Amino acid sequence: MDAFQQLQLREAQVKPRFLFRAASDQSRGVNTAFRIDPLALPNGEYHQCLGTMTWPVARSMLEKHLKWDYSYASEFSSWSVSLLWVLTHAVRKTTVHLGHVANANIKVYVLDTQAIDVTRVHRARNLVDLFGLKNISNIETYSQGEYLIHGRLQDVDGFKAVRLGQLITAGLYKKFPGLMPRSTEREYKLYCRVQELRFAYSNVLDVCPGITSSYRQLGSCFGESWEAFMTLAFVSIRHRETGTAATDMLLADFQVNGVDTGLRLAGDDGEPENETCQANYGYDFASAGWDTDDEAEESNRSDDMIKQLEGDW
Length: 313
Known about the structure:
Blueprint: H1 3-11, E1 18-23, E2 30-31, E3 35-37, H2 55-66, E4 76-80, H3 83-92, E5 107-112, E6 121-123, H4 124-130, H5 139-142, E7 146-150, E8 153-154, E9 159-163, H6 164-169, H7 172-175, H8 190-200, E10 204-205, H9 213-219, H10 224-235, E11 239-240, H11 244-253, H12 295-299
Parallel strand pairs: 10-11
Antiparallel strand pairs: 1-5, 2-3, 3-8, 4-7, 5-9, 6-7
């Protein structure tokens, strides 16, 4: 790539603090609780980064990857800022699709990107613009909120994987019944189904004592270090009352030992470009939902503004 192309590529390097993904044994490469390897070849050699590829190689690889063409080797894994999108995608994998059997060993991942070099993370919509891929059918729709991470990842890089079945057992369908498959055949395009669910969950959530306990059951599936954040991420899918009394009740329900009660939660406002989840303990927590034009600034806050919640529930 020439100097101008390298400059454009750097502008696409955006690293939200937290990302989500769904994968199974049928997904591209190897996807386990300890390793994500898109190439998954004994002698699979990765380029140093996207910028070291020639322009034609990079464009072809990105086009095939974003079209979900598994027959073409890709050096990227796909992630999303939207937990709702990822959960919908994970559940859809349990159903039959175009003659293919239901996927096996489906997992939901969450990643703290602090340990990942920013040169490895790219905002898909930026790459679509940069490499002139807008003419591909539905590519802009499906790349909203998507981020591509280059190369292999190990669990020491900051991700946690949980089986979809464990989340279902913990009450995923009870809290979000719309996620439950309505037939054995895969229905709707993924984007359309997410939009439908987003509208369904735009109804205001009544805040009452003990409201977070069931969401906490889902969050706890990710282990103690992830429980607080994932509980907030699940809550962020729902609208909720925002009055003083409701907020105070939610604060009381979200007590964390040793942490001040300066908690602020911003739920999904129902707009596909504005889903966010923030917890403020004197710090901001960017998680969330979908992509926004300001999402890079929202999610890529400096470390002095973002901190993992500490303490026991």
